[in-house]
Hints:
Blueprint: E1 10-20, E2 30-36, E3 56-59, H1 60-69, E4 74-78, H2 88-97, E5 101-106, E6 120-124, E7 149-154, H3 157-169, H4 172-175, E8 177-182, H5 189-199, E9 204-205, H6 209-214
Parallel strand pairs: 2-4, 4-5, 5-6, 6-7, 7-8, 8-9
Antiparallel strand pairs: 1-2, 1-3
Catalytic activity: 6-carboxy-5,6,7,8-tetrahydropterin + H(+) = 7-carboxy-7-carbaguanine + NH4(+)
Function: Catalyzes the complex heterocyclic radical-mediated conversion of 6-carboxy-5,6,7,8-tetrahydropterin (CPH4) to 7-carboxy-7-deazaguanine (CDG), a step common to the biosynthetic pathways of all 7-deazapurine-containing compounds.
Pathway: Purine metabolism; 7-cyano-7-deazaguanine biosynthesis
Amino acid sequence: MTQPDTAALKLRITEIFASLQGESTRVGLPTVFVRLTGCPLRCSWCDTEYAFQGGESRSLADVCAAVAALGIRHVCVTGGEPLAQKSCLALLAALCDGGFSVSLETSGALDIAGVDPRVSRIMDLKAPGSGEVSRNRWENLAHLTAHDEIKIVLADEADYAWAKAQIALHALADRCTVLLSPVQGRLDPTTLAEWIVRDRLPVRFQLQLHKILWNDARGR
């Protein structure tokens, strides 16, 4: 069977830019962000609604060349929901083949099984306050390894109680690093930090470093 020419594959790209990683255990590392266009979810606290539509159709080869031109080893493929585009899997593999250290930010609503195992999957679990808790694909948990991370964004105390229950029920901290984040302007970060310490949760607290440095500036 003739293999497809992956270099000719197309992706719809909202932006490609260099910044510091603002989340995950890679926080603070200079990183190239590849933001794919489109997302089937509508989380109440979403801060990248501009990536829901529009964008520019670019070849996989062009995207890889644009990343390489920025001269940074770490690459984060994000969105939107990058896995909503079929060519995302080929992009992730191509970036790994290019020698980059690659992470994927994904909502957890789509199947992650086909993601190249060299990629660090930063997968959300959607708490009730997101409005999309029903979209969690719980089957994804079985695919996670210590190389991956789970991120839960919390809007209030009810979300925290939900997260605490899921961490215990699914032994999430035994699978991989678990990250808890407050929704900016809705849950006081100090309050969340105090809950975590009080309950001795086996998680990592995180704030969005890019928002502290650049507020909500696009492309940072």
